[in-house]
Amino acid sequence: MILITLSFSCASHKEKVYKKHIPPTEKGTHAQDQPVQDPGLVHPQSQLSEQKKNIVRHAVQSLGLPYKWGGQSPESGFDCSGLTSYTHKKAGIIIPRTAKAQFSKGQSIEKKNLQAGDLVFFNAPQKKGGWHVGIYIGKGHIIHAPGKASPVTYGDLNHPYFKKYYKGSRRYY
Predict the structure, then answer these.
(1) What CATH number does residue 121 fall under?
(2) DSSP code of 25?
(3) What domain range is 139 assigned to?
(4) For residue 99, which of 20, 109, 129, 131 is within the disulfide window of CB 3.0 to 4.6 Å?
(5) Per the domain annotation, does 33 fall within a domain?
(6) What are all long-range contacts of 111-114, with beta carbons under 8 Å and residues at least 24 apart?
(7) Which one is catalytic: 80, 88, 141, 159?
(8) What is the residue-averaged pLDDT of the chain?
(9) Residue 159 domain flag
(10) Pseudo-torsion of CA 70, 119, 92, 102, nearest 10°?
(11) pLDDT digits 0-9 by tens, 86-100
C-alpha cells in the first residue's frame, strides 16, 4: 500500500513540474475553431511522400484533443512527444517516445529546409533540461500539444517564444 502511494506521489510530482512549461498557442485561436485542412493546402502534395502526408493528416485530425501528460492516443489525449510518436506510428514510422530521445535520432534538418511532417524541437525554460516538440505542417506552422489546459493546436514558428527557444529539427523516413 505504501509503495503504491509513493509511486503516485512521484508521478504527480513529475507531472506538476512538466505542466509549468506551456508553449503559446496562436493568440486568439482555439484548435476547435480552426478548419481541418488537407495536408496539400499547407505544402504542395506532389512534394510529399505518402508517409509525410499521413503524419500531417493525423496531426490535423488530432486538433482539439485534450492535453494529457504521458498521453499517446486520441482516446487518452496527448502530450507533445506522445502526439509525434502517434502520428509517425500511423505513417508506419516508429520513433522514440520522448522528445529528448526523438531529438537524438533522425536526420538533422536546418530550419530553412523544413518539410511537412518534420519534427521541430524547443527548450522548455521552466524545467532544466526540458524539451518540447511539434510537427511542422508547412508555411511556418506546427501542430503541437502545448500543455495543461491547452488542447492540441497550431503554433506559429514566428512567435517570439518559438524563435527564442528553438533547438533544432529532425526528419524521420
Answers:
(1) 3.90.1720.10
(2) P
(3) 50-171
(4) 131
(5) no
(6) 111/157, 111/166, 111/169, 114/169
(7) 80
(8) 80
(9) yes
(10) -60
(11) 999 999 999 999 999
Is residue 145 in a domain?
A: yes
φ and ψ at residue 138, rounded to 5 degrees: 110, 160
Indicate whether 13 belongs to any domain: no
pLDDT digits (tens, 9 = 90+) for 66-87: 999 999 999 999 999 999 999 9
How far is residue 84 from each of residues 58, 70, 98, measured CA to CA in Å?
Answer: 10, 12, 9
Listing DSSP states for 102-129 in one string gives HHHSSEEE-GGG--TT-EEEEEETTSTT
Checking if the pLDDT of 62 tops 60, the result is yes
**80 catalytic residue (yes or no):** yes
Active-site residue flag, 144: yes
User: With b meaning 16 or more CB within 10 Å and e meaning fewer, what string describes 35-72?
Assistant: eeeebeebbeeeebeebbbbbbbbbbebbebebbbebb
Q: Is the pLDDT of residue 17 over 50?
A: no
**Least confident interval from 13-27, 38-52, 109-123, 134-148:** 13-27
Q: According to the model, what pLDDT value does residue 7 have?
A: 28
